[in-house]
């Protein structure tokens, strides 16, 4: 239906929608983040829920302390290799369809600790990330913008075919491998189903 026609009908008190739009409207306005923080970005995440910013206005009223009651994981801060298995384990226990926001430079790429032997160079090496927030640390406004971007992604998901939510895709993996501590590093070093090393081309070849 033409968008202008929908607006005109709504002015007259007539709501025209589809099952997909109604379904996704309910999902995008009832996202339950997990009450979980890793480092300094977690302070900004906490501030986003306080009275000044009030993330509850956007449909994230309740931060759940149990992964089985949450569907959004905000990876807020530095992911050390000691903590990486726990993050993946928590993600595996979350309700479907589940989403991930990588908050801050550390969660995205290791940030200022990228060269450290004990820091994971991006949580997207083990779990799929839906929205990245750059910054060190990003302000609460940036997290709200990322949350709105996630809502737009949820609203655009079809119920069938390519791009449908994970819980409607029988072929989507239910769990992701939890890395273990090897002799020198985490094993496996990355989850090949979600991350591949970038290819570089040498000039003249």
**Which residue ranges are poorly predicted, with pLDDT under 50 across at least 5 consecutive positions?**
none
Mean pLDDT: 89
Q: H/E order of the elements? A: HHHEHEHEHEE
SS element count, helices: 6
CATH class category of the largest domain? Alpha Beta
Task: Count every beta strand, where a strand is a DSSP E run of 2 or more residues.
Answer: 5
Q: What class do helices, strands and sheet pairing give?
A: alpha/beta
Largest sheet: 3 strands, parallel
Kindly give the count of domains: 2
Percent range for β-strand residues: 5-15%
Spatial strand arrangement across the major sheet: 1-2-3
> Termini distance?
52 Å
For the record, the CATH architecture of the largest domain stands as: 3-Layer(aba) Sandwich
What is the CATH third-level topology name of the largest domain?
Rossmann fold
Which geometry do the CA atoms define? globular
Question: In which range does the helix fraction lie?
Answer: 25-40%
| Radius of gyration over all CA atoms, rounded | 19 Å
Oligomer: single chain
Features:
single chain, Rossmann fold, 2 domains, 5 strands, two-stranded antiparallel ribbon, 6 helices, 205 residues
Describe the protein.
The chain has helices spanning 3-11, 19-28, 41-48, 84-93, 105-109, 140-155; strands at residues 72-76, 99-103, 131-133, 180-181, 186-187. Helix 5 (105-109) links the parallel strand 2 (99-103) and strand 3. It is of the alpha/beta class. Helix 2 runs antiparallel to helix 6 and helix 3 (41-48) packs across helix 6 (140-155). It folds into two domains: 1-27, no CATH class; 31-157, 3-Layer(aba) Sandwich (Rossmann fold). It has six helices and five strands. The chain starts with a helix and ends in an 18-residue tail after the last strand.
